[in-house]
């Protein structure tokens, strides 16, 4: 993967990694990738999250992988404002325009976003704002379409986020990201890795590997500005994407970790129910349950890669 960047319409530099150097495209590669897999990381993450996935996803030579560092994350800049899911969705739209300008992402390129955690929320917001015509299908990874508990219906603790689900818990989370970032980064690892959140006797993870995993994720989180993240968190947790899911007209796969410290299977299954009940893409959404945590692309990379490739192949009709 090679880093590149572009400048958003507000002047913020946005970085991304690409399996093809978009600044120097060999003639024999032009147009050879008919599917673009967009790997969208989660809150406080970066494109580096997908270190165990990219090589497998591009191995056939038919797929091009792009993983952006969202505004405020990784090597991307963070603006004075811009800590809103809608701004991140606008950034995604600008990224697609930039990639099309390279000549590789043609109008008929099948673009498949793999939205992990807040990455899923960004795609749902994109659909609400701009429709789903830019994409061939969708993969949503371990994210319910509403984090907060709702006063308007039965969206309660069985479906909402396990730890940040109302005003009080959100304010506590904001304080933690600002005042005790090191401890909060470690807490995120305990919440998101299944063997840390709910360890089983069958988990064959050594102490050395556990330390390496923690260092990997906390190092990435530490690159973010805690105050900026805290403001993004307040916006993210309030968004209700359930109706946006009903606007989806394309094949959809939801991947969920049964040992996720973030969401229940019931909450994540709402996306499947909404897509299938809306009528636009009736029967086109399915759910795949992994025996791990929130970061299932990292804990179960072989299965994750296989299922993503199978989904992308199905969009080609084979």
From TrEMBL:
<feature type="domain" description="AB hydrolase-1">
    <location>
        <begin position="37"/>
        <end position="305"/>
    </location>
</feature>
<dbReference type="InterPro" id="IPR050266">
    <property type="entry name" value="AB_hydrolase_sf"/>
</dbReference>
<dbReference type="GO" id="GO:0046464">
    <property type="term" value="P:acylglycerol catabolic process"/>
</dbReference>
<keyword id="KW-0378">Hydrolase</keyword>
<dbReference type="Pfam" id="PF12697">
    <property type="entry name" value="Abhydrolase_6"/>
</dbReference>
<dbReference type="GO" id="GO:0047372">
    <property type="term" value="F:monoacylglycerol lipase activity"/>
</dbReference>
<dbReference type="GO" id="GO:0016020">
    <property type="term" value="C:membrane"/>
</dbReference>
<dbReference type="InterPro" id="IPR029058">
    <property type="entry name" value="AB_hydrolase_fold"/>
</dbReference>
<protein>
    <submittedName>
        <fullName>AB hydrolase superfamily protein YdjP</fullName>
    </submittedName>
</protein>
<dbReference type="InterPro" id="IPR000073">
    <property type="entry name" value="AB_hydrolase_1"/>
</dbReference>
């Amino acid at each position: 993967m090679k880093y590149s960047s572009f400048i958003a319409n507000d002047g913020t530099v946005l970085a991304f990694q690409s399996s093809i150097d978009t600044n120097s495209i060999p003639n024999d590669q032009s147009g050879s990738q008919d599917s673009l897999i967009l790997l969208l990381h989660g809150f406080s993450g970066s494109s580096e999250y997908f270190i165990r996935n990219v090589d497998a996803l591009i191995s056939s030579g038919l797929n091009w992988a792009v993983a952006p560092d969202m505004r405020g994350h990784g090597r991307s800049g963070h603006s004075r404002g811009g800590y809103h899911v809608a701004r991140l969705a606008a950034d995604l739209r600008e990224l697609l325009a930039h990639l099309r300008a390279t000549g590789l992402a043609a109008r008929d390129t099948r673009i498949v976003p793999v939205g992990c955690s807040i990455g899923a929320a960004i795609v749902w917001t994109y659909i609400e704002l701009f429709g789903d015509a830019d994409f061939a299908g969708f993969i949503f990874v371990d994210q319910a379409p509403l984090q907060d508990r709702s006063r308007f219906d039965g969206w309660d603790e069985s479906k909402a986020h396990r730890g940040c689900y109302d005003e009080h818990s959100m304010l506590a989370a904001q304080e933690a990201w600002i005042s005790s970032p090191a401890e909060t980064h470690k807490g995120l690892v305990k919440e998101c890795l299944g063997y840390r959140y709910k360890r089983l006797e069958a988990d064959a993870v050594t102490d050395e590997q556990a330390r390496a995993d923690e260092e990997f994720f906390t190092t990435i989180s530490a690159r973010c500005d805690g105050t900026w993240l805290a403001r993004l968190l307040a916006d993210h947790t309030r968004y209700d994407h359930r109706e946006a899911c009903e606007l989806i007209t394309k094949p959809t796969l939801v991947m969920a970790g049964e040992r996720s410290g973030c969401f229940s299977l019931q909450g994540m299954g709402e996306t499947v129910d909404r897509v299938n009940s809306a009528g636009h893409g009736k029967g086109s959404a399915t759910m795949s349950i992994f025996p791990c945590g929130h970061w299932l692309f990292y804990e179960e990379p072989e299965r994750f890669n296989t299922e993503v490739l199978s989904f992308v192949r199905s969009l080609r009709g084979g």
